[in-house]
Amino acid sequence: xxxxxxxxxxxxxxxxxxxxxxxxxxxxxxxxxxxxxxxxxxxxxxxxxxxxxxxxxxxxxxxxxxxxxxxxxxxxxxxxxxxxxxxxxxxxxxxxxxxxxxxxxxxxxxxxxxxxxxxxxxxxxxxxxxxxxxxxxxxxxxxxxxxxxxxxxxxxxxxxxxxxxxxxx
Length: 169
Known about the structure:
Blueprint: H1 8-24, H2 36-42, E1 45-50, E2 53-59, H3 60-64, E3 69-75, H4 80-87, E4 92-95, E5 128-132, H5 135-148, E6 153-159, H6 163-167
Antiparallel strand pairs: 1-2, 3-5, 3-6, 4-5
């Protein structure tokens, strides 16, 4: 089935029911689209073809397992002990974008400066990323840890795994 995306929402319910009926009857329906959000909502199994080659073919949940969720956040002051606590969480990885050192900020050296000389930037300007398997559970844990450490949360955004991210990597 190949349809333009305008009004897909109104047809999505009908297409989903029709697709479920086909699947129950042992039939396969082929739906072509470059809109991964539509594909994720309508299809139980997905094949990705790029330049004439099948790049991936699996169920939506299995394809989504390939990608972790993401929590991007800014805090006023991430203490070394809180950082160490977060780094110990299972199935999580704390990432510092753009070469930041989480304790000191970026090193800005002059020609005669030693390695330990730096000009720290404001901590709230530093975005941190927490890559995790379970975004909702990890976000609640992060907020609780920040609250317990009395660290101000300045901003927070999350990204759940989705087909768009799986195939844009």
